[in-house]
Amino acid sequence: MPPEQSSHSTPAQSGADKRLLIVDDDERFCQRLARAMDRRGFVVETAGSVGEGIETARARPPAYAVVDLRLGDGSGLDVVETLRAARSDTRIIVLTGYGNIATAVAAVKAGATDYLPKPADADQIETALLAREGSLPPPPEQPMSADRVRWEHIQRVYEQCDRNVSETARRLRMHRRTLQRILAKYAPRS
């Protein structure tokens, strides 16, 4: 299979610093993304936890970073803040399975350049990493459906309430039985 080609200039073509740090605790996703970004000319280093990400950011601050928001040992925002402190010009993309306005604002306040909901592919990530400062990203080819966005929000609040159905229902202002029915269903298609 030939390497994927991109229509815009990659760091390897421009001669710029092309070091990329990927911080994600989903090992399969992390390795797949690392291979794809390597084919695009980035020099990739990976970390599977907040601790590893912070250590790498301090030791070898990269020009680019892709950081998962929710990691097994804490918040990816801690890695974002460390990256920003270590190197102010690092372009940082935050990824999360729970795409919403509150987490997007938190990511940008912590120092992220952009924010993408999972599943994001290598093309979307590369576009976000290489976008000019202040430019708006193109709209997604297949945005999440309204039903999927609603389901993601409910799941996020449920997790934040430590999987307590009564507390989640109270916070979402919905009947407990209605919430239980929603939680019992599979996620709607995107």
From TrEMBL:
<dbReference type="InterPro" id="IPR047772">
    <property type="entry name" value="ActR_PrrA_rreg"/>
</dbReference>
<keyword id="KW-0804">Transcription</keyword>
<feature type="domain" description="Response regulatory">
    <location>
        <begin position="19"/>
        <end position="133"/>
    </location>
</feature>
<dbReference type="Pfam" id="PF00072">
    <property type="entry name" value="Response_reg"/>
</dbReference>
<keyword id="KW-0597">Phosphoprotein</keyword>
<dbReference type="InterPro" id="IPR011006">
    <property type="entry name" value="CheY-like_superfamily"/>
</dbReference>
<keyword id="KW-0902">Two-component regulatory system</keyword>
<dbReference type="InterPro" id="IPR002197">
    <property type="entry name" value="HTH_Fis"/>
</dbReference>
<feature type="modified residue" description="4-aspartylphosphate">
    <location>
        <position position="68"/>
    </location>
</feature>
<keyword id="KW-0238">DNA-binding</keyword>
<protein>
    <submittedName>
        <fullName>ActR/PrrA/RegA family redox response regulator transcription factor</fullName>
    </submittedName>
</protein>
<dbReference type="InterPro" id="IPR001789">
    <property type="entry name" value="Sig_transdc_resp-reg_receiver"/>
</dbReference>
<keyword id="KW-0805">Transcription regulation</keyword>
<dbReference type="InterPro" id="IPR050595">
    <property type="entry name" value="Bact_response_regulator"/>
</dbReference>
<dbReference type="Pfam" id="PF02954">
    <property type="entry name" value="HTH_8"/>
</dbReference>
